């Protein structure tokens, strides 16, 4: 069986920065956030179901999903959130499985902010956590998104705690240093994963 490596981390920890470096080494990255967007594209059954359930006002004039409106709706009502999750989670899982199965790189990476909180973890053989101190998470996210500190802290509070995430890691990438230091860690871990992948196939 091909090796599947899960990679996760809190908001602004550097998942994308890290996975871009693995991708540059020829590794296929399956992105759970991207999968959740693909299943909601116009013409896909999930979007029709959402429009039928909540109303057409959740669609933008171009027929795509108004994500902000949907978020506001499900944030305010647990039943709506549960309905949406029961619709989307299996479809996201299927999309991820298909993309993992289609990969032919030496090993494949599944990148997800919710890897450990969802069943996505079950598809992986190995868990990498990208870790930075909370103050750095806040500073880098604010710089990237022009977000308010309070908003970023609210998202961090809603995510798994740093301690719990680290406790479930097989390997931790410490991204509190420079991008050059990140690159060096990725290079080392990539070599280790290639060996693991070979061992898993043998
Ligand atoms: P999210 O969960 O919000 O998608 P993420 O974990 O993918 O976030 P990135 O977008 O990779 O995080 O990184 C957050 C920001 O910090 C980006 O602007 C990125 O360029 C920057 N960054 C990442 N790693 C470093 C680093 N080692 N040094 C400086 N800046 C960094």
Largest sheet, in brief, is:
5 strands, parallel
Cα-atom radius of gyration: 18 Å
- Looking across the biggest beta sheet, what order are the strands in? 2-3-1-4-5
Structural class: alpha/beta
**Average pLDDT taken over every residue:** 94
- Helix and strand element order: EHEHHHHEEHHHEH
- What compounds sit in this structure? adenosine-5'-triphosphate
Strand content: 5-15%
Can you count the helices? 9
Which regions are unreliable across 5 or more consecutive residues at pLDDT < 50?
Answer: none
Shape: globular
N-to-C terminal Cα separation, in Å?
A: 10 Å
Count the beta strands: 5
Helix content: 55-70%
What's the quick description here?
The chain is of the alpha/beta class. It has helices spanning 15-24, 32-38, 45-54, 67-76, 78-102, 134-145, 149-158, 162-167, 179-201; strands at residues 4-8, 28-31, 108-111, 126-131, 171-174. A 5-stranded parallel beta sheet has the order 2-3-1-4-5, with helices on both faces.
